[in-house]
Amino acid sequence: MKKTILPMLLLAVWAWIAYHFCVSLEQTELWKIWMVVGMPFGIHRMCIWLLPKNFDIGGTVGVWAMNIIVLS
Fold first, then answer.
1. Number of C-beta neighbours around residue 24 at 10 A
2. d(CA 69, CA 19)
3. Rounded to an integer, what distance in angstroms lies between the CA atom of residue 61 and that of residue 51?
4. Is the pTM of this model over 0.70?
5. What's the pLDDT at 12?
């Protein structure tokens, strides 16, 4: 109950609030809904760095390139 139904219920309520917040002049702005609903799920992931461990030089360079691409 705590791990499945309650989070889905909170997500549904959050999406419902975001939908009513992002409707203006009876026109739905999907870009705003996408940004508002996704914000709580993405904010804490914006500061995560991938640490290359047990890779060869190509894998390490690839992981660092991914870090730079994601953060810029």
1. 9
2. 31
3. 11
4. no
5. 92
| Dihedral, 54, 60, 64, 65 alpha carbons, nearest 10 | -140
Average pLDDT over the chain reads 82
| pLDDT (average), residues 3-8 | 89
| DSSP state letters, the chain | -TTTHHHHHHHHHHHHHHHHHSEETTEE-HHHHHHHHHHHHHGGGTT--PPP-S--HHHHHHHHHHHHHHH-
Contacts of 21 (CB under 8 A, 6+ apart): 32, 36
Q: Is the dihedral of CA 17, 26, 33, 6 positive or negative?
A: positive
Q: Give me the helix-helix angle, 5-21 and 30-42, nearest 10°.
A: 140
